[in-house]
Amino acid sequence: MSRRRYVAAQGVPGGYRIWGDRGRRQWSDLYELCPDDPVAELNAQADHARITALMKRYRAQ
Question: Residue 39's Cα: distance from chain center in Å?
Fold first, then answer.
């Protein structure tokens, strides 16, 4: 069984980025607001359509 992958929002100068725990690299653009909803969805069931909609909404803000 493979190890589960988790992501977290990390504060950086100017906002937040989503980081992966395995690759220790960023997964997303810079957001001004903390992206709690996309992080929760990525760590839960990871529905592609829902993640895409959430990312577009957070980019628009």
Answer: 4
User: 3: part of which helix (H) or strand (E)?
Assistant: none
56-59 — which CB contacts under 8 Å span 24+ positions? 58/31, 58/33, 59/29, 59/31
Burial classification of residue 10, based on how many CB atoms lie within 10 Å of its CB (0-12 exposed, 13-18 middle, 19 or more buried): exposed
pTM for the whole structure: 0.69
pLDDT averaged per 10 residues, the chain (length 61): 72 84 75 83 83 83 73
Tokens 């977290």 label which residue? 8
Residue partners of 27: CB distance under 8 A and separation at least 6: 7, 17, 18, 19, 20, 42
Alpha-carbon distance of 3 to 9, in angstroms, equals: 20
